[in-house]
Amino acid sequence: MGTTQLETVPEPKYWHLKTVISEALDSDFSVGEILPNERDLAARFGVARATLRQALEQLELEGRLQRRRGVGTTVAPPRMGVDVSTTQHAWPGAGQDAWQTVDGTTAVPPAAVARMLDLDAGEETHIVRRLRVPHSQPVAAELLYVPASSVPDLSAIDAPSGPARARAVLRELGRLDLEGQDRAVELGSARADDAKELDRLPGAPVLVVTTRYVSGGRTAAVSLATYRADTCRLTFGDSGDLEISHHDQERRAS
Question: E-assigned strands of 31-90?
Fold first, then answer.
């Protein structure tokens, strides 16, 4: 990467620097390559390290860079295509579900989830924890909240705890008639547990997809899925469904 004069640029220095670095990533670096340290980069571009950090943080948010513990800042691979549309109209765990079941437990859900499920204060639900790992890279972590009323025939003897319990909850949930589902997406920050599962730093930008499953005229389950914002790009198609597109597809569309 060469040097550039930033003093006469009318836009913020970090924003112009971000553009310069982005162009260099295309021409001078390969996927997975580690960038020079902040001191060397700041000296090369003649900027303060605070300005450099702003540019690098923006590039990370856009999915061009990844910061990994014990490794440093590397060039990110193309964004993965992960379908999260509602066209399949199926319960979690059914059909060609791309999620891996990790664990199952019971606990009191967050207040917002309890309200969606119309639960009494302090009432516990089944919680199924799952991961989405296409191409051996974790891109999303999900917590699925299922009240006991949705799976009344669940047998504690057949599946006392852990992954077996989670699979039993999904099996019983799939016996219900799914009447519909709706989703909402918002930008958030990775909590410590999500960050660990997704190989991110705590506080890193994430996309939180909340799905409400309806059966018998009521909310039968609620899913909170946390997606890596640097890996995934959510787009809305003509049908109103959600899908995540490849980074190279984004470039062709622009």
Answer: 65-68, 72-75
User: d(Cα 173, Cα 220) in Å, to the nearest integer?
Assistant: 8
Domain parsing of the chain, residue ranges: 13-75, 99-253
What gap in Å lies between CA 182 and CA 238, rounded to an integer?
16
- Provide the strand spans (E) within the chain: 65-68, 72-75, 99-107, 125-132, 140-146, 180-189, 205-215, 218-228, 234-236, 242-244
102-159: pLDDT as tens digits = 999 999 999 999 999 999 989 999 999 999 887 777 889 999 999 999 999 887 656 6
pLDDT of residue 110: 94
Kindly indicate whether the domain formed by 13-75 is annotated with CATH number 1.10.10.10: yes
Q: Which fold does the domain 99-253 belong to in CATH?
A: Chorismate lyase (3.40.1410)
**Residue 199 falls in which region: left (phi positive, over 0), alpha (psi -120 to 50) or beta:** left
- Measured CA distances, 63 to 16, 164, 237 (Å): 17, 36, 21
Q: Classify 56 as helix, strand or coil.
A: helix
